[in-house]
Amino acid sequence: MYTNQYKAGCCNIGEAEIRIRQKFLIFFLLISILLTITVHFYHSLWVFYLLFLTTLATIILFVEVVSRFCVLFAIFSLHNFHEPGNLDAIDDRHCKKKDRLRALYIIMGAIVVALLYTWLISVFC
């Protein structure tokens, strides 16, 4: 169970931030689905780029919602468990390092999965 407090490398956003990310997740998921359908009819390099970018955003947002960990907040050493916009800074060097390392893992994993998905769609369409 997640707590509603900052935990280095594990949790850096609260319920209000999660709700915002859920809305963005739905938006990017719908765009990714539409672009996947579009690829079947219109083979263009820019469509594949857009598919990759929206898939990447969808994956990162999904991980953020599920893990309650914001990649952008981790990179800039921030956390928020209050209203959106009320950010608190992280001062501990070790906490910053844990957060940034986790953010790097999430970004790299999302890039690999998004590239694989885009490649599979391009091969089978």
Q: Would you summarize the structure shown here?
A:
The protein has helices at residues 15-41, 45-67, 71-75, 93-124; strands at 78-79, 88-89. It has 125 residues and is mainly alpha-helical.
Structure report:
The chain is mainly alpha-helical. It has one domain (15-124). Helix content is 70%, strand content 3%. The chain has four helices and two strands; from the N terminus they run H-H-H-E-E-H. A two-stranded antiparallel ribbon has the order 1-2. Helix 1 (15-41) runs antiparallel to helix 2 and helix 2 packs across helix 4. The longest helix is centred in the C-terminal third of the chain and has 32 residues, at 93-124. The radius of gyration is 16 Å and the shape is elongated. It starts with 14 loop residues before the first helix and ends with a helix. The mean pLDDT is 94.
Which features does this protein show?
125 residues; mainly alpha; two-stranded antiparallel ribbon; 2 strands; 3% strand; elongated
